[in-house]
Amino acid sequence: MIEWQMPLAGGLLIGLSSSLLLWGIGRISGISGIVGTAITSKPAENGWRYAWLAGLFLGAIVYLKTKPELFAHEFNFSTARLIISGLLIGFGTRLGSGCTSGHGVCGLARLSMRSFASVMIFMGAGMITVYLAKFF
Amino acid sequence: MELFISFVAGLIFSIGLIVSQMINPAKLIGFLDVLGNWDYSLIFVLGGAVGFNLITFRFIQKRKSLIGADLCLPTKKTIDRKIIIGSVLFGTGWGLVGVCPGPALVNLVSFKSEVLILVGAIIVGMFGFSFLEKQKS
Asked: Of A129, A136, B9, B119, which residue is most buried, by most CB within 10 angstroms?
């Protein structure tokens, strides 16, 4: 029996969070957009982005201190692999206008065909990569 | 008010990513490993989040936001070369390390050197994109 309760609870919280952001301030919860815009554009309109990231980090710190076992996982990858994938993630999400949150969590719920295409493509690319990575 | 709502939303998002274990690269790679020992539990994360929003967004999208602003929604409709290539690049990077941008940021708090390198490279990639965009214009 696969563990589904906590993933579902987490998913509902992510839904609640992105609904709150859209209802409250009219913004889509797209993390690559929030980070990318916050670091590469002038800070005039970035207040909500900094506030959102502050909330994200606070939640992470509280969980790290109270339930460190949830952060016990390892990142057993070579430095080259980390750098290459980071560059691909950073550049790719900006070129493709979104990642798992913007296109997945929000775009699919908005019934956007662009987001649906993006999710199918990045999941497909991810699956092929995981398959091929086994041979290296 | 805008900043407070945004802060709370970021906080809830973070808790969602942590309790669902989206931040665990082994879990994510297990989810993408459809041809191997597939761990489909993370489908419930996307399913829960999209399912929740499918219901609420229908109502939210009909009116202005709580702070009285128009909703800031994407207007592009065409599936162009940029979104296709961008999604392929992102998916490849995602499959290589098993974390997408949100979980990468959340993992920063444990100060593992691998995460610092990864997030550093993500930021360089984002700057690289905006640099190329500026060159074109």
From this structure: B9
pTM (2 d.p.): 0.97
Show the domain range for B130: 2-136
Q: Structural domain tally of chain B?
A: 1
Pick A25's closest partner by Cβ from B44, B47, B65.
B65
How much is the ipTM here? 0.97
Q: Residue A123's domain spans which residues?
A: 5-133
Residue whose C-alpha is closest to residue A102's, from B121, B76, B58, B119 = B76
Cα distance between residue A108 and residue A39, in whole Å? 26
In this predicted model, what pLDDT tens digit does every residue of A86-115 receive, in sequence order? 999 999 999 999 999 999 999 999 999 999
The B residues from 91 to 110 touching A (CB cutoff 8 Å) are 91-97, 100-102, 104-110
Asked if A54 and B90 touch (Cβ cutoff 8 Å), the reply is no
Contacts of B18 (CB under 8 A, 6+ apart): A10, A59, A60, A63, A70, B106
Rounded to an integer, what distance in angstroms lies between the CA atom of residue B78 and that of residue B80?
Answer: 6
Q: Determine the distance in angstroms separating the CA of A69 from the nearest CA of chain B, rounded to an integer.
A: 11
Residue-wise pLDDT tens digits, A18-65: 999 999 999 999 999 999 999 998 888 899 999 999 999 999 999 999
Assign 3-class secondary structure to A90-128.
HHHHHHCCCCHHHHHHHHCCCCCHHHHHHHHHHHHHHHH
